[in-house]
Amino acid sequence: MVKINELTRYIDQLLQVERFKDYCPNGLQVEGKIEIHKFATGVTASMALLEAALEAEADLILVHHGYFWRGEDARVVGIKRQRLAFLLKNNINLLAYHLPLDAHPELGNNAQLGKILGITPIGFAGESNIVAYGTLEKPLPLTDFVQHIEKALQRKAIVVGPQKKTVQKVAWCTGAAQGYIHTAIELGVDIYISGEISEQTNHEALESGVSYISAGHHATERYGVQALGEHLSQKFNLSHQFIDIKNPV
Question: Would 87 be classed as within a structural domain?
Answer without folding.
Answer: yes
